[in-house]
Predict the 3D structure of the following.
Amino acid sequence: MSQAPSAHIGIGAMLARAWLYWRPYRGLAAVLVVVLLFQQAFTTGLAVSLKLIVDNVTEGTNDPPLWLILAGLSLGYVLAASSSLVGDILSSRATARITNDVRRDLFVHLQRLGMDFYVKMPLGDILARFSSDLAIVRQGLTRRLIEGVLAIIGLALNLPLLFYLEWRLAIFTTIAVPLMIIAVGRMTPAAADATYVMKDAEGSVLNTVQENVRAQSVIKAFGLHTLVIDRFHREIDDLARISVRSGFLIALVGTVSTLGVQSVQLLITGIGAWMAFNGQMTAGSLVAFLSLLGVVSRNTYDLTKRFVPSLINASGGMRRIEELLDAPVRVSDGGQARPLPSLTGGVKFEDISFAYEPGRPVLHGLDFEVRPGESVAIVGPSGSGKSTVLNLLLRFYDVDEGAVRVDGTDVREGTLDTLRAQMGVVFQDNFLFNTSLRENIRMARLEASDEQVEQAARRAEIHDLIARLPEGYDTHAGEAGSRLSGGQRQRVALARALLREPVILVLDEATSALDPATEAAINSTLARVSEGRTVISVTHRLASARGFDRVVVVEDGRVVENGSHAELLLRGGAYARLWAKQDGFEVSADGRRARVDVERLRAMPVFASLDDALLERLAPRFVSEVFAEGERVFEQGDPGDRFYAVVRGKLEVTVDGQQVALIEDGDIFGELALLNDAARNATISARGQTLAISLGRDDFLELMDRSPEALAEVRAVARRREGAA
């Protein structure tokens, strides 16, 4: 849970922020103040009228006449009632406008923030700022603020009248009221800090709920209900503890002020009664003074019990809103940025160094060039920095050193809009909006006609499918494209990219999440639509890179090889080793079954010493296993009983809850399980659907019983690998 912040937004600072939001509506605010004056004037007039009426009764006079007093009160009531109605309308209008201003500021700033912000900031935390944080800020800066202004007007009108009625009692009152306000002010910092921590905890709970809703398929499939409920209970128990402290400190502010007001009322009532009995003030003056004291007490109560606690409460939400508004924009158009002319598609990555976090470089000295109209695949192991190359080209981030150049121009010298407008992008997980398929495609070029949208869909080979749908292009995609299959979403995303007529087509693992048949079909489509364009593709699946003009191999943030698929295989270097890892698996069209050949088994170090006859008998014993997104292959501490090879997909390795590695196509793990029953030293889970083949320990040992020499060699290899690890 979050710790208490080191600083808080005080009452004065909150009032300064209120003025900034009210300043555009100064005219409305001025009218509202006049309306509030009418309301308070009636309250004051009512108290003064009581003095006149009581004194007339006790003295047996009718001066001024009772009818005149009542007529004045009736007129004042009509004016006050009308003012109240007008005030409600004006305050509602101001509240709506100010709230929308904050929403607009937040939303616009979100559009300007770079990808670094979204990688670090949980979605639930962002949503909390638009919901609960904004609601409490709206309450504090509008309705409660208006009540506070009304109370201040009341004090300004009524305190002088108290001096007119009885100056000695008034002096006591004017000393007591500021002392109460000062006492309340001393208590506000701790309450404000506690409120901030509470709002932060509420954002964390909202993030947990949001994540839980999105993960329902995994939770239901693997029976995780008890686990997630227990975790949620712990989180809301922590929130309850924090809320109790925050609520108590805020309530304490109001309670202290209430008790102070009541003690002043009690004391003044007693002193005033004694003075009236002794003839030092009239009965009418006493009644009027106590009536006005009630008004002053209520005004003080509104200030200290409602207005101040509301501002304290709002300060936590305001801090969180300002944290978002103050989040730095890392990538923007510089002062010298100019619109880029039409590009030819030449791209150069020039001696680039880059780190997402200081001191942890991802790229260093990366250097290669893509010629106009050339197709280049960027490959390499997980964590090599290949996806970072695309992030820099698209200016999701800016380089630390070096330059990314298009047609010889540093991308930082051009405007973001004119750079990205000449690129089309297809991601691995393409987001579709919950609107029609036509509008989803049109997002790439808002002015495009229906005919142009359909032409883009034809080129992406999705038009016929859309046309067969009952609502055609008006069919809604569903939330995040949920009404379409993975392949259909990719084709809609490709149509969206092609609608731009991009000079540079960027593909970021565009087919890696698809089954083999769909992947092959989309790769064929990509090959057709890529003609005449510069194509830069990042992929970890080398079968997709085979048809590109050139392959760039990245390892440890540097280019280690550069050439065609055939050239790189002949060199026998890094690319050839990656290819050998992924080659030798036969995958079914639906991507749910796989077979391994003898050559691929021999390439696995643990089996390298086995002869062909043993490998032939071993290969059929492997079984196919499909792991869904988030599914655990095994848990840390589980018994080791199976050996695995990843055919397609990606797995995450965690030790004691911390990610330590990624396993992807062609990687093997769990080989020690073939030789002993040692517990698993890590947890492995799927990052996206993953197909693997596995071999049970008993199957392996049964086969090895026929060849003790081979088993001894396998043990030796396993020991060497264990020592290297």
Remarks:
- The chain is about 55% helix and 15% strand.
